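Ticket 4471: requesting a sanity check on a complex prediction with magnesium ion. Repro inputs:
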Amino acid sequence: MVKLVKGTIEDIELTRAYNQQLIALAEEDPRIVDVEADVGNCIFGPEFQKVFPDRYVNLGVCEQSLSSVSAGLSAVGLIPFCHAFAAFASRRMCDQNYISVAYAKNNVKIIASAPGISSGENGGTHHACEDIALVRPIPNIVIMDPADSTAMRWAVRKAAETFGVFYIRAERLNGYRVYEEDSEFELGKANVIRNGNDVTLIAEGSLILNNCLKAAEILGKKGISARVVDIFTIKPIDVDTIIRCARETGAIVTAENHSITGGLGSAVAEVLCDNCCVVPMKRIGIPNRFGEVGQPAELMEIMHMTDKDIAEAALTAIAEKRRNEK
Amino acid sequence: MDELKKFALEIRIETLNMLSKHGFGHVGGSLSIADALAVLYGKHMKYDPKNPKWEGRDYLVLSKGHCGPALYSTLAIKGFFPREELLTINKLGTRLPSHTDKNLTPGIDMTTGALGQGVSCALGMALGLKLQGKKNIVYSIIGDGEAQEGQVWETMLIAPNKGLSNFIVILDNNRQQLDGFTDDISSLGDVCRKAEAFGWFAVDVDGHDLAAIDQAIEECKRSEKPGFINLKTIKGKGWPAKEAVLGNHALRGAAFEGVDEVLADLRRQLEAMQ
Ligand SMILES: Cc1ncc(C[n+]2csc(CCOP(=O)(O)OP(=O)(O)O)c2C)c(N)n1
Ligand SMILES: [Mg+2]
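Returned structure tokens:
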């Protein structure tokens, strides 16, 4: 069971939580290696290097090799955690991730930092608006976007202990703590963060989960009780929880730091559709457009991903539900 | 040469000014290419600031797109857009994003930022111009870290095979990348010999010696082969405290401390030359 943190406690960067956990796990398991492609500094890689100089491999700027080389490391018994910015970990490594890593059934963990619009000032080339859409069709891959440092630590441990391909997004930005440290998660199990009956807000990642919680407050002032769910693993997705929320609240809003095409919103819609449980639903996320430079908060405004946008989407979905009820 | 020297100083001043006022940016690699940009835009390239898309122009693809600020300064000094606009760097809605974008900025010929791709696009431009019987030259600036991308070496193989004498690649070999010193991560070794072996006309040059850069470009233009210039540069050149030290790749906030004195000193040097 997960235990929720009460009140607002500022969290550390999820990249730092990742790094700390990887060091702890590497103490226990000599097969773990940290493989980098010249953005190791952006995920505190030198900290790992200090403790395990021989198990820190920086290949240079060559993401395609990062993926295939990691596949090779896995083939001789190591457990590579390979890291790149999400844009490059998905787009640039796409075929290598598919063939060398997944199709060849290698045991590789892909760490994708600065996902979605969180790369802010690096602009459109660095925004990873479509990484989930690119990796989601890969059979058996596990995709996670941990919402806080506790979830990140659990995700990294699970990835190390489970043979297979994991794609873990790691926000660089500071967010807020959601889970108590002794929380127990389950792979493929979403977590209900806030109870409610009128609508369910389903989020992925820390940036957007925070917006959903604020949206729930806004809705609360209007007398609407919103349930908030942290999806935790985007693949495998928690079919049971999604269906239950659809049945119990009758309206759904998904919110993601990703394009509305092919990510969480699409995945949830697929679940509703496949289970003949379609309810009024709206998707919040990066619309059909490219990224641009700006601060993440500004970008969320222009991409309509703020708490207000989420609340508004919820009102639309609820209105549709009520119309259907008549 | 004095004009070029002044031009290079101005590029450094504008670059440091805009990045420090904004409080974030890729300082090191922008400063290391200032001299090469001064020679290209001060002497060799054909262009018309009032008509950036003029068909007779030479093209430049800044494949290491994160160093856009140095190129923006160059273009602003040459009148492609007002100098004041430099201060909009990286602001929401700007025409000057951190990485160069051909659809936003007058004078930018290709959109870059994902390392390794720009130089391939440049090859495509050189090939396309050649296929159309045109004489324009295509220049592309790559980084030494960037040269670790496999795509760069595909370009190295293709260009001589397609006889692209109108193509000049300039390697800003500042021996540093994001995570540290290139030789500690994955050294390029004797990159000039490698380029030669791939079929390029290749020269080693002190990347802060304007006359030497000028001569190297001249020789590349004359050669029947595609040209490769290995610019030996210093990352952060012009800001003594940041030259060739760890942590000079991108600066944020407090890391700009001391920039005012550097700017004052660069401005004094410029005045002394007027
Ligand atoms: C494909 C890709 N991978 C990673 C990055 C992130 N990145 C930006 S600059 C840089 C280092 C580049 O080093 P170098 O080419 O030597 O540039 P310079 O020293 O001139 O700044 C990296 C890894 C990127 N922009 N594109
Ligand atoms: Mg370099």
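Notes from triage: Chain B has ten helices and seven strands. Leaving this open until the requester confirms.
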